[in-house]
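Regression report. Comparing outputs from two consecutive submissions.

Submission 1:
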Amino acid sequence: MTSNASVAKTNTRNKIHPHKFALWAACAGIVMMFASLTSAYLVRQAAGNWLEFRLPEIFFASTGAIVASSLTLHGSYLAFMRGNAGLYRGLMVATVILGLAFLVLQYEGWQALVDIGVPLKTNPSGDFIYVISGLHAAHVLGGIGVLTVALLHAFMLEYKVTPNRKVRFELTLTYWHFVDALWVYLLVFFILSA
């Protein structure tokens, strides 16, 4: 027969942190929103009056920036956990820069759409690209805010791996990887549905 202490320890160990649960629930809601938008895209595409065009190459550059930012953030987390404060801070700075670069490149992608004759409010095909990529950019902008707070913690707080800081970093890492994977999905969706 197991003791009450070991049962309590097992129950504690198997519980997910409430903030992590809330983040995963929010991510699930975001996935549902983008799934409905991409479904609406396909339904509207089948209805006709659909302008066919090739997605500007700049969107591939923005994808490279956000994927690289996920890698640098993950490296920052590993350095944080291993006690390498310099690498942790340096990779955090690189992550913020790459995240901002993604947003700038997305804006340039929208400008490239205008240049090829697909401005906003001209055809539903282009409008969907603007709305879906713009909504994703808004989520990335929120992530930049979170990364900025993490960057301030990296430089303003004494370096110390505490349970609270570890959880905050893991939440930041999870959300950033999520918006990265979401963009890759959207880009593949746009390419395959063209």
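Submission 2:
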Amino acid sequence: MSEVARPLAGKVALVTGASSGIGEATAVALAEAGAAVAIGARRKDRLDALASRLRDGGSTVLQLDLDVTDEQACADAVRTTREELGGLDVLVNNAGVMLLGTIVGADPEDWRRMLGTNVLGLMYMTHAAIEGMVEQGSGDIVNMSSVAGRTARKGAGVYNASKWAVNAFSESLRQEVTGQGVRISLVEPGAVATELRDHITQPEAKAAAEQMYTSMRSLQSEDIARAVVYVVSQPPHVAVNEVLVRPTDQER
């Protein structure tokens, strides 16, 4: 395969939430683009299957037992990636939960889970990776946000809040490090056919999400993975700061 077809040859990428959905598809796409890939998640059986698939395709893979809500685990994941794979060029902060539901009558544990994973987990991973990228004068951090990070809707208040936090954090960090060669990017999917909605705990919210997703041609995880590869494959002087990807059928 030509270098054009493998634009990430010689690069090292770390993907969180890699055991399913967008994270799994992104790990595959980055490996196909030539990167050595560290895959992190909590579900070891799924990581084992993904690692075998990638190795069968000739890719270099590192498996990481990673819960992003554990700050030390995030630091260890970045350190191990650099030690075992020789560096870190791309971090994809994909781990997240989408526990939609009303604010009135909510279970605050859903809020803690979303903020702990979607916001603090992303911040912990970024904190672990960013100084090394600044020191080397290059690197990409891609933060997985959502259309919910742009448009607030009833029935998704705290999920909206978590993704708005991701967007604000990312833009502030971008301004801080872009002059030192490090690129910070947001990828914001609309409705994607993944298992995220299976974890919604409010019955009415879960039913509404199912109805919305089945009423349109939803995006597939691979659609978002291609957007990530596009972002991190740009020449060093080009920074794609935001990519919003909606299904054609999604109005807002």
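Expected: both submissions complete independently.
Actual: both completed, but the second showed a warning that disappeared on reload.
Relevant detail on submission 2: Residues 108-136 form the longest helix (29 residues).
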